[in-house]
Queue: 2 jobs
Job 1
Amino acid sequence: MITNKTPLRDLAKKRGLAVGAAVNAEALRDDPQYRTILAREFGMATCENAMKFGPLRPSRERFAFDDADAVVAFAGEHGMAVRGHALVWHNMLPDWFAKGGFTYDDGIDLVRGHIHTVVSRYRGRVCAWDVVNEAFDDRGGWRDSPFLRMFGPDYPTMAFHWAHEADPDAKLFYNDYNADSINRKSDAVYAMVRMLLERGVPIHGVGLQMHLCAWDAVYPASVAANIKRFNDLGLDVQITEMDVRMKEPFNESGLLQQARIYREIMEVCLRAERCSAFVVWGLTDRYSWIPQTFKGEGGGLLFDNEGRPKPAYDALCEVLAS
Ligand code: G3I
């Protein structure tokens, strides 16, 4: 697909915003069209899976960096910033760790070692890390995880300090989903990050994942108020994983509804005092996580299965160019 339109990344840069995409390492390796679209349209990349604990650590002794290195190298070749995702998360943990039943002291050695090894490897090339991802359940309580079991509710404090030790220049984020507007979960996130700041913990921002549904109401004013309260704490905010899934069969009205939602969230981001990045969770619908997670749903991204731009892509370009 040849286009003479100004790429999304260039329109965004003029507005002081980084627009990015989550990168599927296999597609990056095997699909030339994927590489072309990614380099042309996006100024930021997040490894969709390659920097997670499980993919990086097939065993306690071995680190598997090849996929993450490939994404970071591609980003470097194409002037793209990189978000690191995700150092401490309850999901995609290898069994040797998740079922290891480690003691507090063993856990410290393991998790501090993991964070130090991974963050220092990409020092100067990863500008921001999702240090802790999805620590709360949807009611705003602590989500169970090996980290909570080993260290208790202090684990975010510990993880942020360890990441800062490894790269004092990286911007360190707490990242979560369904905490995009003002609700019980985002209240819990707000209370935690305020406590971290009061303790002098090196946290610099909050990631709002923004996994949305085209059939759901979106509350842009509430999202704006949520971003403002984090900004008022002195924190940056980034939209870190946006997609807007539709129910099959996808149709014109669904695509236009999707475009409207992308437009509204981009407008909120642009109007915010500090919303420095807008990252979509994938490049083309073909590689999206959604269909294997939500049967009969998908089409959540800016480019369709064939890599063609959708109305949502045009909507973002219009907002950024206006
Ligand atoms: O690589 C294996 C492959 O070898 C195997 O054959 C295949 C079938 O079992 O699984 C493959 O691993 C899958 C991996 O994606 C790579 O495709 C895992 O099963 C699958 O669980 C994993 O899903 C990822 C999911 O996080 C893990 O929970 C999605 O791609 C990824 O988009 C999704 O991303 C998360 C963010 O990290 C955090 N926020 C929510 C978001 C959506 O869940």
Note: The mean pLDDT is 97.
Job 2
Amino acid sequence: MKDLAYYNGNIAPIDEMMVPMNDRVCYFGDGVYEATMVNNHKIFALKEHLERLYNSAGLIGIAIPYTKDELADILNNLVQKVDSPEQMLYWQVTRGTAPRNHIYPSKDVKANLWVTIKPMKLKDPKKMLHVTDMEDTRFLHCNIKTLNLLVNCMAAQKAEEQGCDECVFHRGEIVTEGAHSNISILKDGVFITHPTDHYILPGITRMHMIQICKEQGIPVDETPFTMKELMEADEIFVSSATQLCRRVESLNGISIGGKDPERAELIQDCYMEKFLNETR
Ligand code: PDD
């Protein structure tokens, strides 16, 4: 298949898949999701993404009707069906299908599993990014990878309209994360990134970058930093499962970063090595 949609066991090309209107995701965005890259038909960091999915689902009281191993088998099987060896794998679990009602349906309503897989080439990790910024007006559950992404979409649209690749969210002066990525900086040889509280999504790529820094002897400081510190940082990273780990060269048209390329590229190279090793 060129691309694939899966809905509770039904498989079709994405454009042809039909889903019930009463899936609670249509009314409330009531569900959680994950996305990662696939290379050589192998899913990168599947274990970590499943761990976070079950955690997100647990935090909003959704019971996923599969064990992690069963869900891994479903996904591993689906990625074999798409022709391209390089894919983007997206999946979401929604609270089930029931007439619109804010109150959750009864426990016997089973959660729905959606999957889409489309061909996607790996992004060039060495391409430098341009970013803009926006006040982070999201709610206080940003640690949950929920489908309520309206403000994230507004931020991504702002970036698009400004000819930028990503939008940096900040609450007042404090940088939280990107519209669909985590933001980290290097300053004086230290890797600084927002702590994993309810203001950011605990990114898997961010976690891998922290592991890499520790392996490479780069100190890690999980402390909030300000927009001023971002502007004055030696290097700025945007990281996500689909963007990988990339460096920023401008914010609102002003040049930033680019002052510690060796250390930044070491982190990027180790990340790519990890990615390619795992998906060989
Ligand atoms: N987004 N923060 C937000 C708000 C995100 O949406 C994402 C990822 C991240 C990075 O997390 P990870 O490294 O685990 O991908 C941080 C995905 C890719 C998306 O929405 O498509």
Note: The chain has two domains: 4-119, 129-278.
